[in-house]
Design brief:
Distance between the termini: 40 Å
Structural class: mainly beta
Number of helices: 0
Strand content: over 45%
Largest sheet: 7 strands, mixed
Order of helices and strands: EEEEEEEEEEE
Length: 119
């Protein structure tokens, strides 16, 4: 069983910053991708950022240059530094872990943490 626990969400003014954390626990592969998706009210879930075990990163177009993802493999924890937040960044942010079990892709989701950007 894999557990992903997110923290760091909250209310911030436009132009502000937040740092999300996602701690993974339980039984999972040594090699995995971890990242963040978000879902705004009435919209589809979208990829925000992801990082591989080796440190390769990927970002959604809307957050490039503003968000930075990192990970601490020893702690099985990923971080999302979000700068210059805008109202359109308001969403529930979900941590996602992707691994392969016997070659089959498998993913796990956290419960989500709310980020609200408003003045």
């Amino acid at each position: 069983q894999v557990q992903l626990v997110e923290s760091g969400g909250g209310l911030v003014q436009p132009g502000g910053s937040l740092r999300l954390s996602c701690a993974a626990s339980g039984k999972f592969a040594d090699i995995y991708d971890i990242g963040w998706y978000r879902q705004a009210s009435g919209k589809q879930r979208e990829m925000v950022a992801g990082i591989s075990t080796g440190g390769t990163t990927a970002y959604g177009d809307s957050v490039k240059g503003r968000f930075t993802i990192s990970r601490d493999n020893a702690k099985n924890t990923a971080y999302l530094q979000m700068n210059n937040l805008q109202p359109e960044d308001t969403a529930v942010y979900y941590c996602n872990l992707k691994e392969r079990i016997w070659g089959n892709p498998t993913e796990h989701w956290g419960q989500g943490t709310q980020v609200t950007v408003s003045s």
